[in-house]
Automatic annotation (TrEMBL):
Domain called HTH asnC-type: residue spans: 26-87
One annotated Gene Ontology cellular component of this protein: cytosol
GO biological process terms, semicolon-separated: regulation of DNA-templated transcription; response to amino acid
Protein name: Transcriptional regulator, AsnC-family
Segments traversing the membrane: none
SMART domains referenced in this protein's UniProt entry, alphabetically: HTH_ASNC
Length: 176
C-alpha cells in the first residue's frame, strides 16, 4: 500500500493488481473543517481556523491537503431554482433497448450535454437510469422529452414523476 496526499488518501492493490481507492482517513479536525465548509465555503481561512481552533497556517495546509487528495472537489454557489424560474423538478426513469457498454456510454454522454439534467444515475431494478431534471414548466419538460430524450438512439421507455414538494434538500455529506 502507498499513501497519497497529506490528507491520508490511500491507494491499494487488489488481487488483480489494479489500484483502487480506499476511503480517505480523516481525523476529527479534518471532519470539522469539512462540516463547516460544506455549510459555508465562502468563509475566510482566518474565520475557518478560528472555528476549528487552529491557527490559519495549519488550517490552510489541511484544506489544501483535502483538496489535493480529492476529498474537496470544488466550491460552488447554490442558486435558488425558484428565483431563476425553474419551478418544475422532475424525476425520470429511462429504460434502454440494450444494456451494452456502447449504449450506456452513448446515453451517459448525451445526458452530460443536457443542462436540464441535474443528476443522472445508472440504476439496478426496473429502469436503467434515474434522472433529476429541472425545467421552468410543463412546456419545458415536453421540449426536453421530445427534443432531447426521446431522440437518443436506444431509448426504449421513459417514465416521469413530479416533485409536489421538496421536503429536504441537503448538499452537505454526513461525516459521522
Amino acid at each position: 500500500m502507498r499513501q497519497i496526499g497529506n490528507a491520508g488518501g490511500i491507494m491499494c492493490c487488489n488481487r488483480n493488481f489494479l489500484w483502487t481507492n480506499v476511503p480517505t482517513m480523516l481525523d476529527s479536525t479534518d471532519r470539522r473543517i469539512l462540516s463547516i465548509l460544506q455549510t459555508d465555503s465562502s468563509l475566510t481561512n482566518v474565520e475557518l481556523a478560528r472555528r476549528v481552533h487552529l491557527s490559519p497556517s495549519p488550517c490552510l495546509a489541511r484544506v489544501k491537503a483535502l483538496e489535493a487528495a480529492g476529498v474537496i472537489r470544488g466550491y460552488v454557489a447554490l442558486a435558488d431554482p425558484l428565483q431563476l424560474g425553474l419551478s418544475l423538478n422532475v424525476f425520470i426513469q429511462v429504460s434502454l433497448e440494450k444494456q451494452v457498454e456502447s449504449e450506456l456510454e452513448r446515453f451517459q454522454n448525451a445526458m452530460a450535454e443536457c443542462p436540464e439534467v441535474m443528476e443522472c444515475y445508472l440504476m439496478s431494478g426496473d429502469s436503467d437510469y434515474l434522472l433529476r431534471v429541472v425545467v421552468p414548466d410543463m412546456q419545458g419538460l415536453e421540449r426536453f422529452v421530445v427534443s432531447r430524450l426521446s431522440r437518443i438512439p436506444g431509448v426504449r421507455n421513459i417514465r416521469s414523476g413530479f416533485a409536489l414538494k421538496q421536503v429536504k434538500y441537503q448538499t452537505a455529506l454526513p461525516l459521522g
